[in-house]
Amino acid sequence: MQCPLLYRFRVIDRLPEKPSAAATRGTLVHAVLERLFDHPAAERTVPRAKELLPGQWDRLLESRPELAELFEGDADGQLLAGWLAEAEALVERWFTLEDPTRLEPVEREFFVEAELDSGLRLRGIIDRVDVAPTGEVRIVDYKTGKAPRAEYADGALFQMKFYALVVWRLRNVVPRRLQLVYLGSGDVLTYDPVPGDLERVERKLLALWEAIREATESGDWRPRPTKLCGWCDHRAVCPEFGGTPPPYPLAVIPRQDAVLPAES
Fold first, then answer.
1. Whole-angstrom Cα distance, residue 84 to residue 92?
2. Residue pLDDT, tens place only, 207-240
3. What φ, ψ does residue 45 adopt, rounded to 5°?
4. Strand, coil or helix: what is 141?
5. How far is Cα 11 from Cα 33, in angstroms, rounded to an integer?
6. Quick check: 238 and 5 in contact, CB under 8 A?
7. Whether 182 contacts 143, CB under 8 Å
8. Residue 136: what are its φ and ψ, rounded to 5°?
């Protein structure tokens, strides 16, 4: 949806990308918030959450050693200390938006997978799933950035509606509420879906998949320039910036020209 050519570079060519300090900080904060619920409710405090940060960073480094590149040349550790302080501030802000002592998630980092009637298989990982005593389901996603302006809210909710669709198809329950928690700005965005919403998302996903299938066969992946291009790792091979994409690694299926019937 954002850029078909970027999809190709990431999914088909699998071009490497440099670690991002902001994305890695988000991963770290997610890990801390997930692990905090391992503790009894009374122990889910700001100090306990802060104590979890160094250990979760060590675990992240162990699983992804390339993240050490983020702090190369940081001999005195000031860059790392500042980065961890920013993560700490995001974790602390979460406590002003939700009270973990009153939450008992039924799922955390929940992998979901469902197959639509069309045969298209959907997969995702949901940050948190809460279930009320009445059985109502709430899907929660943490964002370490700032909340989007109102005119961009639909784009932000697309991911959540995707999750809701998967849960609906998987468990035959439409989630009661979708909740985006923006730690960067201290905002909470909520939306209560209905079946019609999720049916529209399903139709959109089918159209997207058809577009992906056609582009995969033809090799025709178009760049879609936006303000996000400034953060893209692949500008050197993007035509929009004078670059040339690498050779297409898949076989291209030529389009068949229409054949007109011979005149009698």
1. 12
2. 999 999 999 999 999 999 999 899 999 999 999 9
3. -120, 170
4. strand
5. 29
6. yes
7. yes
8. -70, 140
Quote the pTM value. Answer: 0.90
Amino acid at 178: L
**pLDDT tens-digit readout, 34-67:** 999 999 999 999 999 999 999 999 999 999 999 9
Cβ-contact 207, 192 below 8 angstroms: no
Are residues 84 and 52 in contact, defined by beta-carbon separation less than 8 angstroms?
no
Asked whether 142 and 183 are in contact (CB, 8 A), the reply is yes
Given a cut of 60, whether residue 136 has pLDDT beyond it is yes
Element (H, E) at 25: helix 21-36
pLDDT of 256 reads 58
DSSP state of 241: G
Judged against a pLDDT cut of 60, whether residue 255 lies above it is answered with yes
Query: Distance between CA 167 and CA 169 in Å, rounded?
Result: 6
- The encoded tokens of residue 146 equal 């700032």
- DSSP secondary structure code for residue 38 in this structure: T
- Residues in Cβ contact with 114 at an 8 Å cutoff, skipping those fewer than 6 apart: 121, 122, 165, 166, 169, 170
Q: Largest Cα–Cα distance in the chain? A: 87
Distance (Å, whole) CA 88 – CA 63: 21
